[in-house]
Design a protein that fits this description.
474 residues, Cathepsin B, Chain A, 3 domains, 12 helices, 23% helix
């Protein structure tokens, strides 16, 4: 029981940013990094508070990875407010980075609940504040939240925004056995190791009265010190700060670090055939426990599927991306496939489900309509998606739904040869690869299943290669 109570205290630590906000840059100077500090490069700007210090710090964390060249952030981090603290009743303000950190629905839910700022309940999750369960200063398990938000694909936009992230939450307390993605007995030296590995961390602070979240981006351990360098989530007027790990004196608040969360992008090839799905239970009235929920993705009849797989369910939302369906690639090649997403739960409530089947390295998406679904105990909520075999593109010699450099690598060495087939580059069916096949191949270069995706630099190389082919033919 002691471990459970301690863990719940950490998970639901109040981050009373609005109470703390009067202690802003106008009132305190803080302390800039001192000589000897080790600081990560390409840092995001210290964002001003926007509907919670925890989602603001999380936005900076994703902004850091965006600055490293990882497409980690829908939009850009450039339009965060410049004053502190900042709220708004204008929906036009909730765009780009602001909408990523805390969306309009989150803010309005807070207003309707009589809260100082946003609430995650009663609406579809579409911002970090929702995924983090930020409400009246409290936030939930950030590790699951950041992984799910990173994997989430906003159904309101045509772009594919889902990215795989691994995330872990840590605590300085000794609370017994580690949990999945949650580790105890975390130390200052562990934090230093994260920075040395190039990974910033959202840090959870506690003064005994207040709580706060910041982004740790460096450290200073010269002369036996245990200091960390941070972005405060209070705005650029503060800039980089250096505070003591325990009982800091820079602000006079006495913050001590009691935990943190890191999120790292997972870079891996996207399967040729893959799936994505999102189950959103961030609706008012849902129990906080996922006990009894199962999620199944399958093909064919849900009662007797041709193929299916089950997925683990985390605490609030379940988002999976780049699910490898390579084993089903041959079945997908038929004219039509019926896929389903089935959710079974032992509580009644409304949820939102959407899923996609992606073919051709994320280039062609078969997407379901996201819609509310009522789940009844003992019954399953099922969403169906029918995929049509994509129209082939002339020149797609490796049959991956596009005409690209890999097809060119097949076509070019066969130019001028006879006894050829379609897969060798004979696109007009006369048994050889010649200028007439080139006339078919070239206009389709840079398309995927009929959709143009020209790459100018590559087209120049293609033209040079064509000149070389013609010279060789002569």
């Amino acid at each position: 029981m002691r471990n459970f109570v301690g863990l719940r205290r950490l998970i639901w630590l109040c981050v009373w940013a609005m109470v703390l906000c009067p202690l802003s840059a106008d009132a305190q100077a803080g302390r800039a990094p001192l000589p000897g500090a080790v600081i990560l490069s390409n840092l995001p700007t210290d964002s001003c508070w926007w509907y919670g210090c925890t989602p603001t710090a999380a936005g900076m964390l994703f902004g850091y990875w965006e600055n490293q060249g990882i497409d980690a952030y829908p939009g850009s981090q450039d339009n965060m407010p410049s004053s502190f603290p900042h709220t708004s009743s204008n929906p036009a303000d909730f765009t780009d980075a602001r909408g990523v950190v805390a969306g309009w629905a989150n803010a309005q839910s807070g207003v309707s609940s009589g809260l100082t700022y946003g609430s995650w309940t009663g609406h579809y999750a579409d911002s970090l504040a929702d995924f983090l369960l930020t409400q009246n200063g409290a936030s939930g398990r950030a590790d699951y939240a950041l992984m799910n938000f990173g994997a989430w694909d906003d159904p309101r936009t045509p772009e594919i925004e889902s990215r795989k992230f691994d995330a872990n939450q840590v605590s300085t307390f000794n609370l017994g056995t580690n949990l999945p993605h949650y580790f105890f007995d975390w130390t200052y030296q562990d934090y230093v190791s994260e920075i040395d590995a190039g990974r910033p961390m959202m840090l959870s602070l506690d003064s005994g009265i207040y709580g706060h979240s910041v982004l740790g981006v460096g450290y200073n351990n010269t002369a036996g010190k245990q200091d960390y360098v941070l972005l405060t989530a209070w705005g650029p007027a503060w800039g980089l700060q250096e505070w003591e790990w325990a009982n800091e004196t820079a602000t006079g608040t006495g913050w001590s670090v009691n935990g943190g969360t890191e999120a790292t992008p997972l870079i891996s090839p996207t399967p040729q055939l893959s799936a994505y799905f999102h189950i959103d239970r961030n609706m008012e009235g849902w129990p906080s426990s996922p006990d009894g929920m199962t999620v199944t993705l399958g093909r064919g009849n849900p009662d007797s599927p041709d193929w299916s797989m089950n997925f683990p369910v985390d605490i609030w939302t379940t988002t999976q991306t780049d699910i490898d369906l390579t084993s089903q690639i041959n079945a997908f090649g038929s004219n039509e496939q019926n896929w389903f997403l089935k959710v079974t739960y032992d509580h009644t409530g409304d949820t939102i489900m959407d899923f996609q089947i992606r073919y051709g390295f994320d280039q062609l998406v078969f997407k379901s309509a996201d819609s509310p679904v009522t789940i009844v105990p003992g019954m399953s909520a099922i969403m169906y998606l029918t995929t049509q075999n994509p129209e082939p593109v002339a020149g797609d010699l490796d049959h991956d739904c596009d005409v690209d450099i890999f097809d060119w690598a097949i076509f070019q060495p066969n130019f001028g040869s006879s006894g050829m087939t379609y897969d060798d580059g004979d696109l007009d069916g006369d048994g050889d690869v010649d200028i007439f096949d080139w006339a078919i191949f070239q206009p389709n270069y840079g398309t995927n299943c009929g959709n143009p995706i020209p790459e100018p630099a590559t087209l120049i190389l293609l033209a040079l290669g064509a000149v070389a082919m013609l010279k060789r033919r002569k």
